[in-house]
Amino acid sequence: MADYWAGRDILSTRDVSREAIEQIWHKAKKYEDAVTQKKSYDKQSGKVLASLFFEPSTRTQFSFQTAMQRLGGGIISFSDSNTTSVSKGETVYDTIRMVESCADVIVIRHSLEGAAKLAADAAKIPVINGGDGANQHPTQSLLDTYTMFQKKGKLDGLTITMIGDLKNGRTIHSLCYALANFDVTIEMWSPPQLKIPQVILNDVSEKVKLVELESLDLSNSDVVYATRIQKERFDDPEEAERYSYVIDAEAVKKMKDDAIIMHPFPRVDEIATEVDSLPQAAYFAQEANGIPVRMAILDSVLG
Amino acid sequence: MNLELSLMDSEQDKMKIKKIENGVVIDHIPKGKGLAVLSILGIDEGFHATVSMVMNTPSTTSGLKDIIKIEERALEEKEINKIALIAPAATVNFVHDYQIVKKRKISVPDSFEDVISCPNPKCISNKEGRSILKVEKKSPLHVRCVYCERAYSQEELLELSSFTA
To answer: Which residue of B has its CA nearest to A199?
Structure first.
């Protein structure tokens, strides 16, 4: 397969193939020393990334910017749209038309769903979705699946247990579609009001085995993918309390010895800090993988 | 609008609606959907010419149907696509001088563009740009917004959304 990603937008994992995902993994592996050795490459010298974060972000924004710099490229950015013409009412479309003359690739995060697609319609240069509302976060899924591949050697045959807010979490939605390319079992546990949208289940049900857990049982998991339950999603704070969960050292003892725990972060109190030093804790490695994976993404789309 | 409405429940009660001189006849509308078709065409009491509607009349192909005749009115492509959302099996006859000059069977397009808004209030197409709902399945109708990627059945779309002007 030729380089699938060259010149492409990355908006969603819904139509991405297994081969395309694996291309990113294999390229990312070559860039791991950008984290371990702080090594830089001269691959995209002279190219410019426009980093447009209409909504706050720490790790996605930092890792994209680091990735571009490690590739030898430059960055223009804003992370507070209140300091730009957007605050004067400028549309996303007009903002993108202006930015595309300054850059070779755009990464955009926006609170409205479909904003990245609209940006891609406006721009002739590749647009990467850095998160659009509750819809998609495709580069997170690429780094999530890369972490599973890195830690477990393969995805086929794995049982991945998604827990927490499965309704509003774009990382969950994107990951479901990415995992639909592999022979996996997805277990799900969430409060009743935060279940995964039915449309996603319909889309992936013929491709993966789906299991809804009645209780938070992690004993079958190869990968636990924990997400934050946001208390503001509940009308009754006591109900939010009832569904809060903590993965602590005791809970880890009940898991398979070689299981891993992932989290897209930020975490609040879903994973006790005592777990951080256990071999199952893969979430810091997952975070760090944002850099080589996003290097692979930028290098691929820029060609 | 001068609305002639007839509800026919037997052959004896059958009323002939007089032929129209110029305008359109929309036939094979699913039973009970005639008023909705008028609504999406923006035809209300302010309309200047005669509108006739037959509800619950026997259809040779599918049980009961509604028929609408609208004087002095043409239909644009966008309006035909709107009708396709409610009455995908309808036909439109264009009438001139009491003669049918063109007959058109409505078909579900590959996508509905600027026909109906995406029901998702957090979709960017409701703030800027335009609505594009890609048809994933024609019967029963299922569409997906190309922006927010949410999928809707025909019923969900008609219940939750509004037609664009």
So the answer is: B151
